[in-house]
Amino acid sequence: MKIGILGSGLMGGKLGVLFTRAGHDVVFSYARSEQKLKHLALEAKGTARAGTPADAVRDADAVLLAVHWQRIDDVLQLTGDLSGKVMISCSLPMNADDTGLVTGHTSSGAEELAKKLRRAKVVSAFGTVPSEVFFDVFDARRRATRPNMAYCGDDDGAKGVAATLISDVGFEPVDAGPLRIARYLEPFALLMGQLAYEGDGGPEIAYRFERFEKSIAQKRDMR
Ligand SMILES: NC(=O)c1ccc[n+]([C@@H]2O[C@H](COP(=O)([O-])OP(=O)(O)OC[C@H]3O[C@@H](n4cnc5c(N)ncnc54)[C@H](OP(=O)(O)O)[C@@H]3O)[C@@H](O)[C@H]2O)c1
Fold first, then answer.
1. Global pTM value
2. What is the pLDDT of residues 137-146, one digit of tens each?
């Protein structure tokens, strides 16, 4: 697939490299320096290249939106028309000074995005896992047991594209249902991030509940 990356930071940069290594044709866009985009394209090898947001979106089979919440309107202005595009979003709503996630029970970042882009096919995916774990999962992707990753959306074709990409990175895709499920997955992302950065087990516990349970059991035994 041709995949356009909008936002080539921790999430977009890592996922773009892994999509390229999985054989996809990736365009990295939207960073503060073009040099960084070129470095990422070199690191990814394959056919990856640097481009503008409009280049990234042109003819793309899937577009990964991986910018901070405050940058969404800015990047969307640069892409041009997104009608009919499969938009995979890992962007989580943040407060005005970008210091905390905003969670709500009646909507989600993904649903708000879908309201902005009524003609695009929005899928929420990748946002519940800290970017640090992606390379490890990719390296272990041929193991019989793969960590699960939930995704949700309202368009079956777009969800099929997201499931392929989740699988290519090394996770077992789990269809969590319609896009409105994102309002429950996004608070879960906050918990996962907190466990990854503040828990003793580091990123590992963020994507494997059985390991999480194991680490709790070990601690209990040690007491
Ligand atoms: N990181 C994670 O583990 C994680 C996990 C789950 C969800 N998410 C979500 O994913 C989204 C992206 O997070 P991230 O950690 O990847 O953020 P990030 O590393 O800060 O990446 C954001 C990208 O946007 C670019 N950018 C920011 N301001 C810009 C500007 N004025 N002009 C052009 N480019 C600009 C940055 O450029 P530079 O490269 O030059 O800085 C960077 O490439 C967020 O909504 C976050 O909540 C992240």
1. 0.90
2. 999 998 888 8
